[in-house]
Amino acid sequence: MNLPNRITLARICLIPFLMVFLLVDFPFYPEPLQLGSLSLPYNQLIAAVIFIIAASTDGIDGYLARKNNMVTNLGKLLDPLADKLLVTAVLISLVEMGKLDSWIAVVIISREFAVTGLRQIALLDGSVVAASAWGKLKTVVQIVAIVLLLLNNFPFSYTGIHVDIIAVWAAALITIWSGIDYFIKNKNLLHLTKV
């Protein structure tokens, strides 16, 4: 249980706290924060901060593991699992809050399951499916879209431009394309074997 793995576990441990702030209606929440015409509930603001902290640990644990030669099988298992749990939990919470269409959450979560399955097939075949540039872009755009939804499109709410909606559509399209890209580049792993 080295430092990178502890950071990954911390990311997983933050997920229940994030969901509590998003989904539990505490009677003692103060009035929403008013920033001019923008009204932002404190629970969403706290959830956004927790999400940003959790999402930022993704790069930190991987960097430390590679830099200090601390890559472990446990880390290889936990890191992608933590990422998927974090994004899935927030997407489902946003659907429950009425801030995200359920079909977009289903598309994004389905892609994550499909690529995870492809990676498992690759492991059985003795190979590794490395993260692609599209996959990394997908992660960044998803994080930006989630943060904007949690912050009610702040600071773009003052401009009247719905950057949060644009980011959600971009996340959905890039997620779909990156999934297709993974399968095209690794189609050799999907060969049919005779029984």
Structural key phrases:
single chain; two-stranded antiparallel ribbon; 6 helices; 2 strands; globular
Describe this entry's structure for a reader:
With 195 residues, the protein is mainly α. It has helices spanning 3-23, 42-67, 73-96, 102-124, 133-150, 163-185, and strands at residues 33-35, 38-40. Strands 1-2 form a two-stranded antiparallel ribbon. The chain is globular. The mean pLDDT is 90.
What is the strand arrangement across the widest sheet? 1-2
Structural class, from secondary structure content? Answer: mainly alpha
Specify Rg, calculated over alpha carbons. Answer: 18 Å
**Overall pLDDT:** 90
Return the string of H and E elements. HEEHHHHH
Distance between the termini: 41 Å
Please work out how many helical segments DSSP would assign: 6
Q: What is the percent of helical residues?
A: 55-70%
Taken from the alpha-carbon principal axes, the silhouette is globular
- Strand percentage lies at under 5%
What low-confidence regions span 5 or more consecutive residues with pLDDT below 50?
none
Largest sheet: 2 strands, antiparallel
Q: What is the count of β-strands? A: 2
